[in-house]
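Table S5 (text form). Sequence records supplied for joint modeling of the two-component complex.
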Amino acid sequence: MIQHTVVFRLRHPAGSAEEAEFLATGHAVLTAIPGVEEFTIRRQVSAKSDLTHQFSMRFADQATYDAYDAHPAHRAFVSERWAPEVVAFQEYDFEE
Amino acid sequence: MIQHTVVFRLRHPAGSAEEAEFLATGHAVLTAIPGVEEFTIRRQVSAKSDLTHQFSMRFADQATYDAYDAHPAHRAFVSERWAPEVVAFQEYDFEE
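The corresponding structure-token record, covering 192 residues in total, follows.
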């Protein structure tokens, strides 16, 4: 398994309707892509980072991860929602 | 629960005896501190970060986390091993 994670901060105010809508749409769009397992959204709360949320998901293997990355629904979410609404982020992937 | 994580890079070469010894000592010292649950060490493999390992642990609540942070064994590991051997790191904590 590979755990794919991204920690990020939105341009929307904490607790706003825009924040809630972004998170709900991200969940709906990304969990519908084949191969995505154990998708979670969590708050990042350490004061040692100014990023505020994490998306996490698991893939069975690298080929499944690559297919997700290339999937049109993922690419559309990145270009139409992620790029304009996320002001900072960092990806990490963990081998399991 | 709170998941406390730190992603980091050692000054030791990948696959070296020094790397293995650091990871083994970190595991032994940190898992012996009261309140540390589900301690894991994983490799960070995304090319979008130059950090190479992650320590992760869970605490039942903030008071348990604070007690870990203040514990002499944690403080000694940070000053005697972490500071001289870790060249870059980033902490993240996630609410669960």
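Note: The two ends of chain A are 5 Å apart (CA to CA).
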